[in-house]
Design brief:
The protein is α+β, with helices and mostly antiparallel strands and about 100 residues long. The protein contains three helices and three strands. It has a domain of about 60 residues: Arc Repressor Mutant, subunit A (Orthogonal Bundle), CATH 1.10.10.
Amino acid sequence: MPYRKGRQCRQLSGRRGFKPMGIPVSLLEQVVLTLDEFETLRICDLEGKKQIEAGEAMGVSRGTVQRLLVKARAKVVDALLNQKILVLVNGFDQEVPEVKEVQ
């Protein structure tokens, strides 16, 4: 297993997934978004910071931020356009958490 550099990411709080309304979980495919990818989206897209600033905040290179952004944006768009569940994991999880119906 390759060495993973420690990254500075916020912890996930609250729900760890998003699904389209009105469709049972059992009928939906999942798209897995890692905490690194989620944090990169938050810093660059929500806070509007440049990739170099995001890299400094996360303790990684600008190239790593760019790679994470490309992957994360593609996953989010796939989930939105193709009605899939978007599941957030911390990147070190070996298993994807089970997504359950919430009433």
